[in-house]
Specification:
alpha+beta; Butyryl-Coa Dehydrogenase, subunit A, domain 1; Butyryl-CoA Dehydrogenase, subunit A, domain 2; Butyryl-CoA Dehydrogenase, subunit A, domain 3; four-stranded mixed β-sheet; three-stranded antiparallel β-sheet; 11 helices; globular; Acyl-CoA dehydrogenase family protein; AcylCoA_DH/ox_N
C-alpha cells in the first residue's frame, strides 16, 4: 500500500504543491545522463501521488473523472514545477493507469490498481523506429512472443509495468499490452539516450525480442489506443507539466533579480511583467481545458472532435508560453545566470527538450481545420 492515501482531488493537489519545492531542491543532483529519480518517486509514493487517478475505493483520489480534470492538471503542474524529468515520467505513469481503466476489463483494472498501490511504476512506450518496431508473434498456446524495440522508452529499467503498443499478426492492427518488466526485463541500449535535456528520464532503447506475454496482458481491442479523443486529447496533461516548468523559470528569475537588488530596473520590471502575464495566461488555459473536458460530450463525434481541437490549441499555446518564458528569463539573468549551480541552465535544457512533442504543425493545422469548418467549442 502507498504510505498515504489521498481520498479527494483537493488533497491530491495539496500534496503535489507541498512536494514541489522538495523535488526542486533535489533536481540538480538527479540531473545525470542515464540516471533516474528513484528517490523522488519514493517521495511521490509516500505522499500517495502514484495512485491519484484511481477511484477512491481503490486507494486513489478520484482524478480519473472528467469533473476532476482541473485538479489532475494542477497536480501535474506542481510536479513539473519541481522537476521536469520527474514530471515527464510521472505523467506517463498516470497516463498508463488511465488507459488501463478506460480500456481494460474489471480484473485487469483491479490487478494493476493493486500494483500501483504497491508502488510499482507504470509508463507508456509508443515511439519506435518503423524498421525495428514491436510485433506480437502468435504462439500455439494462445500466448505471444515479442519481437522488436521501442525508442524513447522513458523509465526503462525502472518501470515494472510499461504499457506498450505492438503490431498484431496478419495486419490485425495495433495492440496495447502491459509488459511485466520486473519478471521479463527488456534488453536496454543506454547509449541511445544522449539528450540535450531530461537526462534523468532514462529514455533508453528497449529491445523486447524474445519476451512473452499472455492474453491477460492485452489491454482493450486492437487499435483502441489510437481512438479519439483520448489519443490526442491527453496532450493537455503533458502541457500542464510543461507549464509547471515555465513557472519554475519565472520563480527562479524573480528570486535571482531580488538577490542582485535589480528589482528597481525598469527593463527588468518590464520583462517580469511579461513573464507574469504569460504564466497567468497558461493557468487560464489549464482551466479552459478542464472546463472543456467536463462539458464536452466525447461520446459524440462532434464532442470528440472539439476535445481534440481544444487539446491541440492548448498544447500549441503552452509551447509558445514556455518558449517566451525561456527567452525573457535569459535576457533577465544574463550570462551570469546561466552558470551552474544556478538552475537556469538545467531548466532551459529540460524544458526545451520536453517541448519537442510529436507533430506540432499537424496539431495547429487541426485547429485551423476545425474553425474553418465553422465549428466551435461551445
Amino acid at each position: 500500500m502507498s504510505e498515504s492515501q489521498l481520498g479527494t482531488p483537493a488533497q491530491a493537489e495539496g500534496a503535489a504543491a507541498k512536494i514541489a519545492p522538495r523535488l526542486f531542491a533535489q533536481a540538480a543532483a538527479t540531473d545525470v545522463e542515464g540516471g533516474f529519480p528513484t528517490q523522488e518517486f519514493g517521495w511521490l509514493r509516500a505522499a500517495g501521488l502514484l495512485t491519484v487517478v484511481l477511484p477512491a475505493a481503490m486507494g486513489g483520489a478520484d482524478l480519473h473523472t472528467a469533473a476532476a480534470t482541473l485538479p489532475l492538471l494542477q497536480v501535474l503542474r506542481h510536479v513539473g514545477r519541481g522537476n521536469l524529468a520527474v514530471g515527464r515520467v510521472y505523467e506517463g505513469h498516470l497516463n498508463a493507469l488511465l488507459l488501463i481503466q478506460q480500456l481494460g476489463n474489471a480484473a485487469q483494472v483491479e490487478r494493476y490498481a493493486a500494483d500501483a498501490r504497491a508502488g510499482l511504476l507504470f509508463g507508456m512506450w509508443n515511439t519506435e523506429n518503423p524498421a525495428e518496431g514491436v510485433h506480437l508473434d502468435a504462439l500455439p498456446n494462445g500466448r505471444y512472443r515479442l519481437r522488436g524495440a521501442k525508442t524513447f522508452a522513458s523509465g526503462a529499467g525502472q518501470l515494472a509495468r510499461p504499457l506498450i503498443t505492438g503490431a498484431l499478426p496478419e495486419g490485425q492492427g495495433w495492440q496495447l499490452f502491459v509488459l511485466p518488466a520486473d519478471a521479463q526485463p527488456p534488453a536496454l541500449d543506454r547509449s541511445f539516450w544522449q539528450p540535450l535535456g531530461m537526462r534523468a528520464t532514462a529514455s533508453f532503447r528497449a529491445d523486447l525480442t524474445g519476451l512473452e506475454i499472455g492474453p491477460e496482458d492485452l489491454i482493450g481491442p486492437s487499435n483502441a489506443y489510437y481512438q479519439q479523443p483520448a489519443f490526442s486529447g491527453g496532450a493537455i496533461r503533458f502541457a500542464a507539466v510543461q507549464l509547471g516548468g515555465a513557472e519554475a523559470v519565472f520563480e527562479e528569475t524573480h528570486g535571482f533579480l531580488r538577490g542582485l537588488n535589480r528589482t528597481d530596473d525598469p527593463y527588468q520590471r518590464q520583462r517580469l511583467g511579461e513573464m507574469a502575464i504569460a504564466l497567468e495566461s497558461g493557468l487560464h488555459w489549464l482551466r479552459g481545458a478542464a472546463d472543456n473536458a467536463a462539458r464536452l460530450t466525447a461520446a459524440t463525434s462532434e464532442g470528440a472532435e472539439a476535445t481534440v481541437a481544444y487539446a491541440n490549441m492548448m498544447r500549441t499555446v503552452i509551447e509558445k508560453i514556455c518558449l517566451d518564458m525561456l527567452q525573457l528569463a535569459e535576457r533577465s539573468v544574463g550570462a551570469r545566470g546561466m552558470l551552474r549551480p544556478l538552475p537556469f541552465e538545467r531548466l532551459h535544457r529540460d524544458l526545451t527538450h520536453y517541448l519537442r512533442q510529436p507533430a506540432p504543425d499537424a496539431a495547429l493545422a487541426d485547429v485551423g481545420r476545425f474553425v474553418l469548418d465553422g465549428k466551435s467549442f461551445s
